[in-house]
Specification:
alpha/beta; 10 helices; about 40% helix; TIM Barrel
Length: about 270
């Protein structure tokens, strides 16, 4: 990607959730995005946090989160800046076992990264503790859903997101359109209602009825309708590719996903 090249297509910002490149390091992930031509990224915490042995991993990770100098994150931001890639959000998944310090630290990390908001595969219950900290830092947190319909504390049903958003104007959505359709709901309708509370979108294709992840265009997810809606409404919401299906080569598959999106938006 030549510096300054943009993956904003007819007003729609296409980027990647860096989890798409979970098979490689932070440096290699940035190189892959540059090679594909993607100019915006939602940074997955797995590309930032250390790989720790299973024994005592939870306590060691908590220690790392609460003691790592914030300059570490400023350095990461510089790497993206040098590559010409905009960081839109930091994916830091608050869970019920997080200490208050661990929660606040996520916002400090995000501030050091220079992002406007966080995304989180979180729980409904921990939102009550996250909301006042989000208000303190004036930073949106987009809650990410999956397709677990059995646990009301997990984000899957529209009601779980709506309950969380009542906690604070700083609690919003990280709407994964593939998981949302797999759980049995309509992401087009939900995005239309809550576009002003949406931090980022995850673009993937899944089958209905908790079906598998599929190559783009082969599942039941209304990817075309979502991207067309963003184009028509001019909503400034990053549409981040999340490569989740099985493929032979990550860079080749993410490139296919990007081409699929570009063809819709052309």
């Amino acid at each position: 990607m030549a510096f300054g090249m943009s993956s904003r297509i007819n007003g729609v910002q296409i980027g990647a959730q860096s989890y798409s490149f979970r098979d490689r390091s932070l440096d290699a992930m940035i190189s892959a995005m540059t090679e594909i031509g993607l100019s915006e990224c939602e940074l997955w915490q797995g590309h930032v946090e250390p790989k720790l042995p299973a024994a005592n991993r939870r306590e060691e990770l908590r220690k790392w989160r609460t003691t790592i100098p914030l300059d570490h994150f400023k350095g990461i931001r510089e790497q993206f800046d040098k590559a010409g890639i905009t960081l839109s959000a930091y994916n830091y998944s608050f869970r019920d076992d997080f200490t208050d310090t661990e929660i606040e630290r996520g916002f400090e990390m995000a501030k050091a990264l220079g992002v406007k908001g966080l995304t989180a595969s979180s729980t409904v219950s921990v939102t009550r503790r996250v909301a006042p900290v989000a208000a303190k830092y004036k930073m949106m947190v987009g809650m990410h859903g999956h397709d677990n319909l059995n646990d009301p504390n997990e984000f899957a049903r529209p009601a779980s997101f709506e309950t969380a958003m009542k906690e604070s104007k700083w609690i919003g959505l990280n709407l994964d359109i593939g998981h949302f359709i797999a759980a049995g709901y309509d992401p087009v309708e939900f995005l239309t209602r809550f576009h002003n509370r949406t931090v980022t979108l995850h673009i993937k294709d899944r089958k209905k009825n908790q079906g598998p992840n599929m190559p783009f265009g082969q599942g039941d997810t209304p990817v075309r309708a979502i991207l067309t809606l963003l184009k028509q409404k001019r909503w400034n919401i990053p549409a981040n590719i999340e490569y989740a299906y099985k493929g032979a080569d990550t860079v080749a598959e993410v490139r296919k996903c990007y081409e699929f999106c570009k063809n819709i938006l052309a």
